[in-house]
Design goal:
single chain; 51% helix; alpha+beta; four-stranded antiparallel beta sheet; 25 helices; 11% strand; globular; 682 residues
């Protein structure tokens, strides 16, 4: 067949890259702007990103920490150097361009994962073929863990996703610079390494090690590699990008810099990890990467599969010395080994090398069609979840493994069973191939079985796991108590404002005061107001509360779960805010005074019921009468107001927020004690 005309030679690659980009946009963009801000890392990262919009060279949680936190308090402290600010700078830039919002703040995660997936294709299109490299890249974008990180539901979030993207970009540029003997491409690879360093420090230096080994291989005539001047340029460009911030932060904030540098090192050494309260919980045995971490991050693939793919990649790289295979093997195996010997192993620790894992997977699946024994091994690894109960007899052998392999010895991960099944099928296939009459039929049958299993895991099983994860995270993603009040505060309050949140609890998986600070750009604290804080610096104090308070109310959307008050202006208890529909329904021991809602543009809207208690409030139920005659009943729990119900009994009224059906679909509301349902808006 004739080669495609020069002007069309890039068309196949463009179509494959387009399919990967389309998959990423379909799986990762929907719901990216959900208002729920997950506690721990995402809540802190978003607050720091919000602060970087005003002070780009001074990352902080609280701009002026009047509460006197510890210097190294990375959750409620002032100055913040817990992680490099690269991905947070990008989030701040996006919000500066399009406005403050969770979608803009998380957009860097989408770009990072698209880069990681494209890296699979461009590194493996030659060795594994366009079909398998494209399919592997799309599977990476569809993984449940990819969705969790990108949407902010898993700690690490945008720092790990942007790191993965920078590493993939750096490796693609490094290989291209070697293939084309190009100094500009080597410089770009160094820039990508520097950007990765600004996302997650030393974890981004893997391409430098890969380039160094390949350069040595070139000098000894063992393999292709960058010229010494290319390596030097890569290092120089990486340093130019990464070092300025490190040098500035070390000089400007020496004490905190020293503390956080020690925290970074503490992940590696057991004694230091045990002394650090934020790390000790992540101490894991040596084999955790291949068991717990792979099970958590690479679901739904059995844990034996990535190890098999990594071993096959290493074999092929050493045998053929093909540049791309050597580069990916030098990326993957040192990452796995270094992290295995490190004391702490967080679920997203190895995520920077996820591109390399799927490169290895694409190569494994491509080669299995040409090698029956390898196909048998793949079938064994993939069939582990379905045959696990029949492999119970291996328990007596598994429990005799060395104590250092604690997770492999346990029955939680099935790595040992998967490897045994993989080896057994490979040996059986190898023996049967010695029989000439069975060779052709076995090769054909195993090729078909391997292809069917692989396609099943790469497409329907991964898609179903993605959809299951999306459904499981729907509620926490759409829930927010602070968005409307926070955005109102951003418009109404002076820059020097302190907001006191009259709440006692947080919604599940959220840090409410941090969420409010993100939406408002103002410092927020829980507890009794300390009006003396910031008094000499011109700060004014405000109150955010789910209840009526004896101060001048501010203009907040009626459907907000919190109201805002000016603590400097006492006033009579307010009536319901404008926009709320009056109800006046007596039920149980409360009177429902009104209702309002906020249209979210998502699957559900946020509703706010204004309730006047008669003693300690009880749980209510509300029935939404929907168009078409259907109904939806929901519980109104007083605790949704983020205060204990015993503290609400003396309130003139308070708000019970609830996620309910879209307001456009609701015709009437029904509460206990109503003779007839009331029309919404009526």
């Amino acid at each position: 067949m004739d080669a495609p005309p020069p002007r069309h030679r890039h068309l196949p690659d463009a179509l494959c890259a387009g399919a990967i980009l389309l998959t990423g946009l379909l799986t990762l963009l929907p719901g990216l702007d959900h208002p729920g801000i997950h506690n721990w890392d995402e809540a802190i990262h978003l607050v720091v990103s919000r602060g970087l919009m005003d002070t780009p060279l001074r990352p902080h949680v609280y701009a002026e920490p009047f509460h006197g936190p510890a210097l190294d308090d990375w959750i409620n402290g002032g100055l913040w150097l817990h992680k490099p600010p690269g991905s947070l700078w990008f989030a701040a830039l996006c919000m500066r361009l399009v406005g403050v919002g969770t979608g803009a703040a998380r957009f860097g995660s989408v770009l990072g994962m698209l880069s990681a997936a494209l890296g699979v294709f461009f590194l493996m299109r030659s060795a594994a073929g366009r079909f398998w490299s494209t399919l592997a890249a799309c599977a990476l974008l569809t993984l449940p863990f990819t969705y969790e990180l990108t949407q902010g539901f898993m700690f690490g979030d945008l720092t790990d996703t942007t790191l993965a993207g920078c590493l993939a970009l750096a490796m693609v540029l490094l290989v291209a610079s070697i293939r084309r003997d190009s100094l500009p491409l080597a410089a770009l690879a160094g820039i990508a390494v520097g950007l990765g360093y600004l996302c997650k420090s030393t974890l981004a230096l893997t391409p430098v090690g890969v380039a160094g080994v390949l350069t040595a291989g070139r000098l000894f005539g063992l393999t292709a590699g960058p010229r010494p001047r290319q390596l030097a340029l890569l290092l120089a460009c990486a340093a130019v990008v990464a070092l300025p911030w490190s040098l500035y932060a070390q000089r400007a904030y020496p004490e905190l810099w020293a503390i956080e540098s020690h925290v970074t090192r503490s992940h590696l050494f057991l004694d230091e990890a045990r002394r650090n309260p934020s790390i000790v919980m992540w101490i894991r045995p040596m084999d955790a990467i291949f068991n717990e971490i792979h099970m958590r991050t690479l679901e739904p693939f059995p844990v034996a599969l990535p190890l098999l793919a990594g071993l096959w990649l290493l074999y092929r790289a050493l045998r053929t010395r093909e540049l791309e295979l050597l580069a990916v093997a030098l990326w993957l195996w040192p990452t796995w080994l270094v992290l295995s010997f490190a004391a702490a192993k967080v679920p997203a620790t190895s995520w920077g090398a996820v591109t390399a894992v799927f490169c290895a997977l694409a190569l494994l699946l491509r080669d299995s069609f040409r090698r029956p024994v390898l196909a048998a091994a793949v079938v064994g690894a993939l069939s582990t979840p379905f045959l696990l109960k029949r492999l119970a007899f291996l328990e007596s052998v598994r429990t005799r493994l060395p104590a250092a392999l604690a997770e492999t010895r346990s029955d939680d991960y099935a790595l040992f069973e998967g490897l045994c099944l993989t080896l057994a099928l490979a040996l059986v296939e190898g023996a049967l191939l010695l029989l000439p009459r069975t060779r052709r039929h076995l090769s054909l049958g195993l090729g078909l079985a391997c292809g069917a299993f692989a396609l099943y895991f790469l497409v329907p099983r991964t898609v179903l796991a993605h959809q299951k994860m999306r459904a499981a995270r729907l509620d926490v993603g759409e829930r927010t108590s602070t968005k409307e009040a926070g955005l109102a505060a951003a418009k109404l309050l002076p820059e020097k404002a302190i907001v006191w949140m009259n709440i006692q609890t947080d919604a599940p998986e959220q840090f409410e005061q941090h969420n409010f600070m993100f939406w408002s750009g103002r410092m927020a604290f829980k507890g009794s107001p300390r009006l003396e804080w910031g008094q000499t610096r011109g700060y004014r104090h405000y109150l955010a509360s789910p209840a009526a308070e004896p101060f001048a109310p501010l203009d907040v959307p009626a459907g907000s779960a919190l109201r805002l008050y000016d603590l400097s202006t006492p006033a009579p208890l307010p009536e319901l805010p404008p926009g709320a529909q009056r109800l006046d329904v007596e039920t149980v021991n409360v009177r429902v005074k009104g209702v309002a809602f906020v249209r979210t543009g998502q699957t559900r809207d946020r509703w706010a019921f204004f309730v006047a208690p008669r003693g300690e409030p009880a749980t209510l139920s509300v029935t939404f009468h929907l168009k078409g005659g259907s109904r939806q009943t929901m519980l109104l729990k007083p605790e949704a107001a983020l205060r204990h119900r015993t503290t609400l009994k003396d309130a003139a009224w308070f708000i019970i927020p609830v996620l309910g059906p879209r307001a456009d679909e609701v015709e009437k509301l029904e509460l206990p004690g109503m003779k007839t349902p009331v029309a919404l808006g009526g």
